[in-house]
Amino acid sequence: MKQTLEVVLTPALLPLYMVKGKTIVVIDILRATTSMCVAFQTGVKKILPVSTPEECKIFKDFDFLCAAERNAVKVEGFDLGNSPFEFQNPLLKDCNIAFTTTNGTKAIKLSKEMQAAEIIIGSFLNLDAICSWLINQQHSVILLCAGWKDKVNLEDTLFAGAVVKNIKQHFKIDCDSAIMAEQLFIASENKLEETVRQSSHAKRFISLHHNEDDVKFCLQINTLTLVPKMVGEYLMIG
Amino acid sequence: MKQTLEVVLTPALLPLYMVKGKTIVVIDILRATTSMCVAFQTGVKKILPVSTPEECKIFKDFDFLCAAERNAVKVEGFDLGNSPFEFQNPLLKDCNIAFTTTNGTKAIKLSKEMQAAEIIIGSFLNLDAICSWLINQQHSVILLCAGWKDKVNLEDTLFAGAVVKNIKQHFKIDCDSAIMAEQLFIASENKLEETVRQSSHAKRFISLHHNEDDVKFCLQINTLTLVPKMVGEYLMIG
């Protein structure tokens, strides 16, 4: 009997699913889960996902750097925002980071509350690593798109579709969102950046005068081989 | 200033949107909104969407035929279920119908509670009629997929995508669900039936030994020119 593979297009829909005992891949392509993967590549030891900037700030007293983003911009007074470029800074090696973002950390915390057996962090940068890891574990899998303020978004759905395409023969799929995500990915596979630049989030970046390279950076495929995973309250790598 | 066009992939997400003053197209391709369109074509005068089979039954005393479907099957003791073929019966001419279904009537009632300015009923059968009607009215538009028990489904999303493709130049679109729905429809346009037969709902029909023709029937395009619309508590045609 194969394990199941489901896609949940926003955290607002997660309560409709049986989460307990399943593996959840949290997906926030622009930019939280991409930045987390980059942070571990840089040598960060632990990331503590927290709910609010206020809560995040407390951990400054406990030898954490504090990263906070709301509405796609860095919250004033924090060490870091949510751009993957910030997490490439070599000074972060061996540091711990307390991290709060608009969507990504919320999705992680909800997965934990709903008693997922395992929570791992997905991005295009570690796509193949995630897929291999999922094939080699025993639980049914939910790919959880962090979305934007509980609404569905394009880039997270596309990544979910990439995972479905790569691992579907190992799982039982009875989930229209998984079929839709895979079809969308296949339709956009050869023009991923062009497609994502149409998304509401990419446009939000441009209107905020962000460095547009964040979008390009977050769509790099298989530049990393690590799989960040929740261990107790922390994200770490194995 | 163009009006906006948004797609909401399940009623569970509708509370995230400003509904008041907008036109909502309710979409339940398999099969409620298709059957409603067919009923009006047959000559039904009014359809009263109600929440539960229990509530539906009361209207038998007030000269209504009562139609009730739950979990894709007709509820025992009712005059009608939810197959479009049932609503082609010429005996339904000039009748009123009280109608309750798992997803479609719920989406209609929620749209009304959230104070939509207009609520109309969409299906592939009246696709062009819906599109013309939307272009010729003044409100911003939400295409509301009824889904399956608050989960996203494939066939309703595909129909939303067909509408987006047809009318997008008349509206402002800043909605990833609309982009996704349109891309999905374009990718499946030439193999709509094959795509929908992969959906969880089409499979549910087969497992329930339904006449498979319901799927084929509900994917006919532009066989009807009517636009059912809520007027007070009732659906009617103009």
What does the model show?
The structure is a homodimer of 238-residue chains. The first copy, chain A, contains 9 helices and 10 strands. The two termini of chain A are 28 Å apart. In chain A, the strands form 3 sheets. A 4-stranded parallel beta sheet of chain A has the order 1-8-2-7, with helices on both faces. Chain A is of the alpha/beta class and 238 residues long. Chain A has helices at 32-42, 53-58, 104-113, 127-135, 154-167, 176-188, 192-197, 200-207, 213-218, and strands at residues 5-8, 23-27, 46-49, 64-70, 73-74, 96-100, 118-122, 141-145, 229-231, 234-236. Chain A has a single domain (5-231), classed as ComB-like (putative 2-phosphosulfolactate phosphatase, Alpha-Beta Complex), CATH 3.90.1560.10. In chain A, a hairpin with a 2-residue loop joins strand 4 (64-70) and strand 5. At the A-B interface, helix 6 and helix 8 of A face helix 6 and helix 8 of B.
